[in-house]
Amino acid sequence: MFLILMSILAQVHLNWSYVISVYGDVHHDNKFFTRTFPWIIDNIGGEITVDFYLVGSGRYGVPQMCVLEMLRMNTFLQAQYLKCEAEGNLSEFCLCESGVDREKFKKCVANKGSLAGQAAAKFSQLGIEVTPIIELGSKSTVFGVEDEWYLKKICTVFGDSLPRGCVKPFACNQTMTVQASRAVAHFDSCCQNEWSQCYAEIPQPEPTTTTTLMSDYGDYTLLVN
Length: 225
What we know:
Elements: H1 2-15, E1 18-24, H2 30-44, E2 48-54, H3 58-70, H4 75-86, H5 91-98, H6 102-111, H7 114-126, E3 133-137, E4 140-143, H8 147-155, H9 164-167, H10 172-178, H11 191-201, E5 209-213, E6 220-224
Parallel strand pairs: 1-2
Antiparallel strand pairs: 1-3, 3-4, 5-6
Helix pairs in contact: 2-4, 3-7, 4-5, 5-11
């Protein structure tokens, strides 16, 4: 009986993690989502679960929150997806690379437009008019600090049981170097090829030629289709 109880407690411990909330606009706070957040996750991603409240335009915020919700069990893939979006890649490519189910994604976007309003409401409750913000509890937030202070603040939730990423974190520049090697979410398709195909389907403008004309008012260029 004792051994069974210990086994159950061990399983509960393995499945339990601290929940933090992240508020931001992926395209506006691109430095945070391309550098700071991936670094935080590289250090303690296995010990935390993240709720995201994206407060940019719902036009892109709702699809992003749908992907993040579908990736909730893997913070490393969440960080990689956000970094892909923040870097300005085509959303189709980032979606493919995340490995989420396309049909479930489309259903989420179609049915969960309310995510934008929920995120805006949660952000308003903070009473803070800047992003990004990390919320650790109802009365504890961190924003507007250097990279290492985000991590140090989050690490306070662990008390004396600090994970390795809090005790001896990776250097931020080291994380940026390693980021070139991407996490694999699936192996049955090549996102680069699919992205190239998607891009090829986008109508391209007709080629133009330029002619420089001389006049009494200076040189000017005429575009000719």
